[in-house]
Amino acid sequence: MTIPFAAQIARLPASTPFVGPEELERRRGAPFRLRVGANESAFGQSPTGMAAMQAALAESAWYADPTSHDLRHALAARLGVAADEMVVDAGIDTLLGLTVRLFCDVGTPVVTSLGAYPTFNYHVNGYGAALHTVPYKGFFEDTEALLEKAHEVGARLVYLANPDNPMGTCHDAATVQALIDGLPEDCLLVLDEAYVEFAPPGVAAAIDTSNPRVLRFRTFSKAYGMAGQRVGYCVAHREIINAFEKIRNHFDLNRVAQAGATASVNDDAFLTRVKAEVEAARQSVYALADRLGLYAEPSFTNFVALDVGSTERGQALLERLAEHGVFMRMPGVAPLNRCVRVGLSQPKEMAEVCETIASLVPELP
Amino acid sequence: MTIPFAAQIARLPASTPFVGPEELERRRGAPFRLRVGANESAFGQSPTGMAAMQAALAESAWYADPTSHDLRHALAARLGVAADEMVVDAGIDTLLGLTVRLFCDVGTPVVTSLGAYPTFNYHVNGYGAALHTVPYKGFFEDTEALLEKAHEVGARLVYLANPDNPMGTCHDAATVQALIDGLPEDCLLVLDEAYVEFAPPGVAAAIDTSNPRVLRFRTFSKAYGMAGQRVGYCVAHREIINAFEKIRNHFDLNRVAQAGATASVNDDAFLTRVKAEVEAARQSVYALADRLGLYAEPSFTNFVALDVGSTERGQALLERLAEHGVFMRMPGVAPLNRCVRVGLSQPKEMAEVCETIASLVPELP
Q: Within 10 A of B29 (CB to CB), how many other CB atoms are there?
């Protein structure tokens, strides 16, 4: 029997797009000692959020509120939008998949940067939309090139992460606003702000949900330290949110995660502490770079792109780091792949990571 | 600006398909005292699973293993299949959505029973496939009618829940096997076994992953008491599992949930206790039916369909129950909608539910 897949599925090539640290640990036959490669937070969770999660475990038998009512209302109040201008789902990845489904038919043109967040591309390819890319400009996503390409191909969606993953750079609000204002007719901006809490004021463009051209994505995975809990949200024009409601899995949020996120939203003391600790950890990577005569790109995220000079040297460093029990990754596309991406951690672990890098760099090819 | 939705999205009508108990509580302005309407488990979680979840909370900052390696291997060993003949995702609902996407183009014929699990229909409609239904035969899904309709319309998918929701009935393995063996060319069975742990031996058709015509869905939401944690899985031919891997959200499983499910799989002492307590609770509903001169359909799930004689009486009963703080639901389609669906609970709560029903039935129209 030939399995009767849908037309678009039959066209998809086999792939293993995502290899997690656990799989690498199984291959090497030992756990990593330091896990600083997946942009996870090393700075804990909100104590009020953790207490709520502890308490909610006893309610694991109950489905979560499918509307995420309390979480949406808490976030909406914080952001100054209406609660029905927001949808919560199991992480930004899930929301990006729904977004592509909402706006893309087979062949619909979509624009992103070459080397930017791969999960968006994964969904674009999965739905058979046509992915167009423009190069980074140095270590920055090139908003002018994105705009030019969007006009050239008649894009339906343009993806921008601000701050950016994998480089940790960011644009100021005026640059993002210029991108928004310059979008072609019938083109929307997928604005991924997963790391926005780590950036200083002036990086996030003003939220204007009356403008249907911007879908803004945020998450509890990064500053809030809840990647394993899967809570992300999208803020957008009400009509777009209504469309998400027509296709999303209404019961896919974890009840414990929802409780934890709701109790964490306004824990500003926690966020302030995390931001300070992240900044201190950045400084230690910058100091390491100085010491080694390398370039570290100033970071607006919870990782730092450390330029080791070439892909070959970067790959050799990652391999040696793994031998020393340190899990780290690097960007996959030139010119970004001269760098390794150093996940920020607490002082003791950060010192260990930096010392290990310092001991290995002199031996690199 | 007219928002440029994809063609299939633009065709979808606005709807609010799922109303959870929390929304009903907000509308009535008070919490429910007894929550026995959403087929959730009232019988706790595996102690080993709960201990694993408590411990895993501290790792909330880490993404879960995207391959669910340990969970798949534990389940595969238990079921006698290979680990690559299984995919784990955030609940059966999520997997049903992916299944429709894998096999259905716009207009692809799909067959289910009128009044069966609505989330499957939600996804069929969401992807623009053509939903065909056949009536229940009494309170049973009619496998012969499903087969006949599948041949008539040239169905790509046929949905069967065994045991069934919302009626709690089931077919024996031979009947399900006859359905499988009789499927048209290019037609697959979506076999939803969410409640299979509550059924006696002989209800589940033998698992044969060499047959690409059967996708079998199971969950930790029911017998394992983890609905709020979102862990379901699909067992199928390797080539079908490979296709799921091309489109699913690889990081959408909650880390705590994954740890809890993995530690629960083989807790047979727990499952044995739950099954015994569910059986005792069924008996108390059967006894209530006898006492009231009503018919209770013998249940193979964690709820009992209690026939109160008419839709009007059923709706009146649900309204009065809500006034008494009891959340309960009923099937929406004739002839099933003569019944209310009594969720099974622990002895004290079960007695309270039964007494409340007993006090209200004499006042029904």
A: 6
Is residue B326 a contact partner of residue B36, using CB atoms and an 8 Å limit?
yes
Nearest residue to A237 (alpha-carbon basis) of A79, A75, A85? A85
Contact B286, B316 (CB under 8 A): no
Chain A hits for B250, CB-CB cut-off 8 Å, are: 17-18
Q: CA triplet B121, A122, A306: central angle to 5 degrees?
A: 145
Could you give the 3-state DSSP secondary structure of residue A110? strand
Q: Using CB atoms, which residue from A18, A61, A65 is nearest to B40?
A: A61
- Global pTM reads 0.97
Helix-strand-coil split of chain B, %, nearest 5: 45, 15, 40
Beta carbons of B321 and B328 less than 8 angstroms apart: yes
| CATH of B19-44+269-363 given 3.90.1150.10, 2.140.10.30, 3.20.20.70, 3.30.2350.10 | 3.90.1150.10
Element (H, E) at B35: strand B34-35
Subunit contact B249:A186, Cβ cutoff 8 A:
no
CB burial of A284-316 (b: ≥16 within 10 Å; e: otherwise) equals bbbebbeebebbbbebbbbbbbbbbeebebbbb
Check: CB of residue A350 under 8 Å from CB of residue A284: yes
Cβ neighbors of B147 (< 8 A, separation 6 or more) are B158, B179, B182, B183
Residues A124, A110: contact at Cβ < 8 Å?
Answer: yes
- pLDDT of chain B along its 365 residues, tens only? 899 999 999 999 877 668 999 999 999 999 999 999 999 999 999 999 999 999 999 999 999 999 999 999 999 999 999 999 999 999 999 999 999 999 999 999 999 999 999 999 999 999 999 999 999 999 999 999 999 999 999 999 999 999 999 999 999 999 999 999 999 999 999 999 999 999 998 889 899 999 999 999 999 999 999 999 999 999 999 999 999 999 999 999 999 999 999 999 999 999 999 999 999 999 999 999 999 999 999 999 999 999 999 999 999 999 999 999 999 999 999 999 999 999 999 999 999 999 999 999 999 99
- B191 vs B226: CA distance, rounded Å: 21
Phi, psi (degrees; rounded to nearest 5) at B150: -60, -45
* CATH tag for A47-266 (out of 3.10.180.10, 3.40.50.150, 3.40.640.10, 3.40.50.2000): 3.40.640.10
Tell me the helices (H) and strands (E) count for chain A, helix number first: 13, 12
Residues A194, A221 contacting (CB under 8 angstroms): yes
Tell if the CB–CB gap between B246 and A62 is shorter than 8 Å: no
Q: Distance, in angstroms, between B365 CA and closest chain A CA?
A: 33
Alpha-carbon gap, residue B36 to B352, rounded angstroms:
11
Of A120, A81, A76, A69, residue with least CA distance to A98: A120
CA B313 from centroid of its chain's CA atoms: 26
Q: Which residue of A has its CA nearest to B244?
A: A9
Q: Which residue has the tokens 């793994």?
A: A322
**Chain A residue with Cα closest to B255:** A228
Evaluate whether the domain defined by A18-44+269-363 bears CATH number 3.20.20.210.
no
* 8 A C-beta contact, residue A330 and residue A340: yes
What single-letter amino acid sits at A69?
H
In which residue are the tokens 């167009």 written? A132
Looking at residue A213, its amino acid is: R
DSSP assignment of B112-179 equals: EETTS-HHHHHHHHHTT-EEEEE--BTTB--HHHHHHHHHHHT-SEEEEESS-TTT-----HHHHHHH
Least Cα separation, residue A120 to chain B (angstroms) = 11
Domain boundaries, chain B: 19-44+269-363, 47-266
